[in-house]
From TrEMBL:
<feature type="domain" description="AMP-dependent synthetase/ligase">
    <location>
        <begin position="16"/>
        <end position="374"/>
    </location>
</feature>
<feature type="domain" description="AMP-binding enzyme C-terminal">
    <location>
        <begin position="431"/>
        <end position="509"/>
    </location>
</feature>
<dbReference type="GO" id="GO:0031177">
    <property type="term" value="F:phosphopantetheine binding"/>
</dbReference>
<dbReference type="GO" id="GO:0043041">
    <property type="term" value="P:amino acid activation for nonribosomal peptide biosynthetic process"/>
</dbReference>
<dbReference type="InterPro" id="IPR045851">
    <property type="entry name" value="AMP-bd_C_sf"/>
</dbReference>
<dbReference type="InterPro" id="IPR025110">
    <property type="entry name" value="AMP-bd_C"/>
</dbReference>
<dbReference type="InterPro" id="IPR020459">
    <property type="entry name" value="AMP-binding"/>
</dbReference>
<dbReference type="InterPro" id="IPR000873">
    <property type="entry name" value="AMP-dep_synth/lig_dom"/>
</dbReference>
<protein>
    <submittedName>
        <fullName>Peptide synthetase</fullName>
    </submittedName>
</protein>
<dbReference type="GO" id="GO:0044550">
    <property type="term" value="P:secondary metabolite biosynthetic process"/>
</dbReference>
<dbReference type="InterPro" id="IPR020845">
    <property type="entry name" value="AMP-binding_CS"/>
</dbReference>
<dbReference type="Pfam" id="PF00501">
    <property type="entry name" value="AMP-binding"/>
</dbReference>
<dbReference type="GO" id="GO:0005737">
    <property type="term" value="C:cytoplasm"/>
</dbReference>
<dbReference type="InterPro" id="IPR010071">
    <property type="entry name" value="AA_adenyl_dom"/>
</dbReference>
<dbReference type="InterPro" id="IPR042099">
    <property type="entry name" value="ANL_N_sf"/>
</dbReference>
<dbReference type="Pfam" id="PF13193">
    <property type="entry name" value="AMP-binding_C"/>
</dbReference>
Length: 521
């Protein structure tokens, strides 16, 4: 059977075509190995076959708990080919959160590296292929080796491709489902809109639990390019990242805006010859075209900055490629226009479109809209609606505010609730607050975002104790340490302040603006 005929997965058909046409081209590269397209396809088929051997049928949730590596790329492709539903489990998350995600999604089989797997609890390794292990909650039974031959299952566009977890306002993280048709539309559009193509190199920068990972990996492979893996030190250190871009000849980055800001601080020696970047794509935060950012792109005249906007529920909904002439950039650039097959409506509180120029909530419609939250029908019904202009088209209420400018582009104007984005991560402040308030010594807890510039944004907690602690510093330090055991690092406030009471607005609500101003002081 030829590579292009043994997959029914829409988003992988372009990848299969490159396997057929250029099997020896480099598909994945890490510090430890390089895989050509033929090997990637063969190893991903082994993953899919092993999952089937272990009882995972199409639609079965499968945890993916791998360190950054070629194994991660292979496994993401393999799980897609199997028809199973990937549940990314970030190796950097606290064990308690990972165990909740597994229980909530019904994960009984996990693909992972042996070290991280031990933290999940209740899983036993039942098979291994090279460094990749398969762990199950069932009784450990001998599994024949090697895995059987792969037989492609039928996978439809409405089948779920993955479930990723976002912060939840009630303290309960929400599982967001994304279908194969949604993913295929995104990747097809991204490949068409991109300035990269066959042989170009894309960095795998996003955390495994972040939906951008699929955008990076599948766009690069669908174009016939190479996915370049980095380690955590390179990912977090802008100087090491510049070195990696030069050494590996990276052409495209998908990175949060705060990393663009960090790269700009170390860009004095950036040149097109040493750093062959052609695209830097960013989402998750308001882009701010500071002098440092403009200077960096001036040094890299062949590189374009692309601002993307969307939510986890829709992934990318709009895009805007900033002009080649850096001097024309607005300080806060537009989020542009909708991607292919997708629309954006600016609506009033009753869901009626408002005239261009007026501020309203941004409703995303069409092909970008996923099927809803996992096991949360009421929350799904509130947020997932129908297009105000066509009830046959799905829509998602983003909770973001915006308006259409005179040139027909969309302007992003921030959140209308307590959901925020810090350093590229979407956070429900209520989730952090509920964890803090669960401590018996805490009477009230409020978390706000302090700092205006992207690189300065951080979380601050304000706590009202039930009784005055003997040692305030030790008490707040203990509460923050407890958060680190339960929440991802990006959700832990950098500081906690003890207050006698919380400021209120005239309507009686907590005055978060006053707290944010105090936190920034």
């Amino acid at each position: 059977m030829s590579p292009d005929s043994d997959t029914t997965v829409l988003v992988l058909r372009a990848v299969a075509e490159h396997v057929r046409r250029t099997p020896d081209a480099e598909a994945v590269r890490s510090a430890h190995e390089a895989l050509d397209y033929r090997t990637l396809w063969e190893r991903s088929a082994q993953v899919a076959a092993r999952l089937a051997q272990l009882g995972a049928a199409p639609g079965t949730p499968v945890g993916v708990h791998l360190e950054r590596s070629a194994d991660l790329v292979v496994t993401l492709v393999g799980v897609l080919r199997s028809g199973c539903v990937a549940v990314p489990l970030d190796v950097g998350y606290p064990a308690e959160r990972l165990r909740f995600m597994c229980a909530d999604a019904g994960v009984k089989l996990v693909v992972g590296h042996q070290g991280p797997l031990s933290r999940l609890g209740g899983f036993s390794t039942v098979a291994a292929d090279r460094e990749v292990c398969y762990a199950s909650t069932g009784p450990a039974r001998p599994v024949p080796d090697p895995a059987p031959a792969f037989e492609a299952p039928e996978v439809t566009g409405d089948d779920i491709a993955y479930i990723v977890y976002t912060s939840g306002s009630t303290g309960r993280p929400k599982g967001v489902r994304y279908a194969h048709r949604n993913l295929a539309n995104l990747v097809s559009w991204q490949a068409d809109a991109s300035g990269c193509g066959p042989g170009d190199r894309t960095l795998q920068f996003a955390p495994a639990s972040f939906d951008v990972t699929y955008q990076e990996v599948l766009t690069a492979l669908g174009e016939g390019g190479t996915v370049v893996c980095c380690d955590e030190d390179e990912r977090l250190d802008p100087q090491l990242l510049w070195d990696l871009i030069e050494r590996e000849r990276v052409n495209r980055l998908f990175i949060p805006f705060v990393m663009i800001q960090s790269l700009a601080l170390f860009a004095d020696e950036a040149t097109p010859r040493r750093h062959p970047l052609r695209e830097i794509l960013t989402s998750g935060e308001q882009v701010q075209c500071t002098a440092a950012v403009r200077a960096m792109f001036t040094r890299l005249p062949d590189c374009r900055l692309v601002n993307q906007w969307g939510t986890t529920e829709t992934h990318v909904a709009t895009w805007y490629e900033l002009p080649a002439d850096v001097t024309t950039w607005a300080d806060l650039p537009s989020i542009g226009r909708p991607i292919t097959g997708t629309g954006v409506r600016v609506c009033d509180p009753d869901g009626r479109p408002v005239p261009d120029g007026e501020v309203g909530e941004l409703w995303i419609t069409g092909a970008a809209v996923g099927p809803g939250y996992l096991g949360l029908p009421e929350r799904t019904a509130r947020s997932y609606r129908t297009d105000p202009l066509d009830p046959a088209v799905p829509a998602y209420r983003s909770g973001d505010l915006g308006r259409v400018t005179p040139d027909g582009l969309l302007e992003f104007l921030g959140r209308e609730d307590t959901q925020v984005k810090v350093r590229g991560f979407r956070i429900e402040l209520g989730e952090i607050e509920s964890v803090l308030a669960a401590d018996p010594s805490v009477a009230q807890a409020v978390v706000v975002v302090a700092g205006s510039a992207a690189e300065e944004r951080n979380l601050r907690a304000f706590l009202v104790p039930k009784s005055a602690p003997e040692d305030t510093s030790a008490w707040t330090a203990g509460l923050l340490a407890g958060l680190r055991d339960r929440l991802p690092a990006y959700m832990v406030p950098v500081r906690a302040d003890v207050v006698g009471s919380l400021p209120r607005t005239p309507s009686g609500k907590v005055d978060r603006l006053a707290l944010a101003t105090e936190g920034a002081a």
